[in-house]
Amino acid sequence: MDNNIAPLSIFADNKYLYLLRSTESADSRADAENRGTDRYGGAIEVYDVENGSLAREIRNKDIGMCSAFTVKESNLYAFNAKTGRISLFSSSGSFLAAYDTKLSGVYADKIAVADNRSIVLKIRENTGEAAKIAVYNPDNGSVSKYGADRFYDSPSGGITEISDFCLFGEKSILVCLSCGRLSLFNIEKAVSEKSCVFPMTAGFMEYDGNVLYYAFDGPVSLSPGNTANFSNADSRRQTGRMLINGGFNWPQSEQELDAWLLNGLQMPVADENGRHYGMARNTKYLFFLDFIPAVQKGGKFSKPGFKVYRITK
């Protein structure tokens, strides 16, 4: 992989690992933390998921200023943040169709396609604004947008933001909130059906079978008062796991939540100062995209970089 061109997002299935590539070099990027904010890619690289060899590269004018993409049933969906169009490509990169979401000029950093054909995006309408969830219906062209308060009405009245979402069943998504809540949202009925406490550290989520995997986007911090936090003194990272299925009782306290938390998966540390900005999964692995910031040594700064790696579930 070309370490001078930082990937913006990551996706995986059981055959391939996909990376959305930026069109600017690491030296010229203005966003020092490489969080993907207001950054776009124009090419998607496809790698063999087992040996890491480059299988193909998808370049197409219809990808445009892509800020988020996903793959479903071998077809690739790419969101163009300039036009608001979602372009559909075959596995070989041939253009198939386009959907106008009416979200032109809106930045999306995550996209997913539900089994009922709804397309779900995590968006920011303006720089610095809180994230929202947008649900686009390709059958009638309608789009609905929901802020964090739609998923959980905090009794404390504090500021709550959307950290991440993932698909859950045919018609529902799970939404992670910064206040330490997890909400089950029915995208057809547009209602939050249930919610529960959730680790405050959670920043990324992937659901597979009966297990919800979650990780955070920054260095581990000690929080001994929160038993749901995974943390330790030497800053080793873990991926948390929670059993969530038809019998899940949506616990309302950390003590109740402990009964549903599984042992965390130990993760390698790409760099002590590194942080996640992408997470993906298939049935065998979890994949992470980490940003490695510049570090000053002897009066000089090292070059920022990234690392793509996987751990076995």
Quick summary:
With 313 residues, the protein is mainly beta. The protein has one helix at residues 254-258; strands spanning 7-12, 16-22, 41-48, 54-59, 66-72, 75-80, 85-89, 95-100, 107-113, 119-124, 132-136, 143-146, 162-168, 172-177, 181-186, 191-197, 204-208, 211-215, 237-243, 261-267, 275-281, 285-292, 296-297, 300-301, 305-312. The chain has a domain at 147-216 and 220-272.
What this model shows, in words?
The structure is a single chain. The chain is built from one helix and 25 strands. Mean pLDDT is 85; it is low at 25-37 and 219-236. It has one helix at 254-258; strands at residues 7-12, 16-22, 41-48, 54-59, 66-72, 75-80, 85-89, 95-100, 107-113, 119-124, 132-136, 143-146, 162-168, 172-177, 181-186, 191-197, 204-208, 211-215, 237-243, 261-267, 275-281, 285-292, 296-297, 300-301, 305-312. The strands form seven sheets. Strands 1-2-3-4 form a four-stranded antiparallel β-sheet, with no helix packed on it. A four-stranded antiparallel β-sheet has the order 5-6-7-8, with no helix packed on it. A four-stranded antiparallel β-sheet has the order 9-10-11-12, with no helix packed on it. The radius of gyration is 19 Å and the shape is globular. The protein has a domain at 147-216 and 220-272. Strand 9 and strand 10 form a beta hairpin. It has 313 residues and is mostly beta strands. Helices cover 2% and strands 48% of the residues. The longest helix is centred in the last third of the chain and has 5 residues, at 254-258.
